[in-house]
């Protein structure tokens, strides 16, 4: 009995650490996005998305399918750093749905000299080939 109790007590911190690792990696992914956006680098911003025709981005104009089409939409909507402004995320929820799959709810804010924008987003982030990638994004 002592052995079982000792084993449980030793393994609990490891289980908590493993649960935090994906959350830390996802937070780093979102920080990478923010830094790339704020540097005016849309290609680097898009490196956090799944480079696949199966990527889905849903915005105010409806769904866009595919990585390249999503990048093209960003380039049309934000043609320069004035339009892009400075991005800030506020994560409201980060929930595991399955091993290697997370659901994120957050708020975004663009501080811009031409007028601020803000809204909310939901993301599905999946571990693919050892990297975390956004596979679905609904931003409004």
What does this structure look like?
- Helix content is 41%, strand content 38%.
- By secondary structure, the chain is α+β, with helices and mostly antiparallel strands.
- The chain has one domain (22-139): Nuclear Transport Factor 2, Chain: A, CATH 3.10.450.
- It has a 6-stranded mixed β-sheet, covered by helices on one side.
- A hairpin with a 2-residue loop joins β1 (56-59) and β2.
Short description:
The protein is of the alpha+beta class and about 140 residues long.
Helical content class = 40-55%
The averaged pLDDT comes out at: 90
Q: How many domain modules?
A: 1
Stretches where pLDDT is under 50 for at least 5 consecutive residues are: 14-19
Number of strands: 6
Q: Based on CA inertia axes, which overall geometry fits?
A: globular
Backbone structural class = alpha+beta
Q: Can you write the helix and strand succession as a string?
A: HHEEHHEEEE
Q: Can you tell me the CATH topology?
A: Nuclear Transport Factor 2, Chain: A
**Which CATH C-level class is it?**
Alpha Beta
- Strand proportion, as a percent range, falls in 35-45%
Distance between the termini: 54 Å
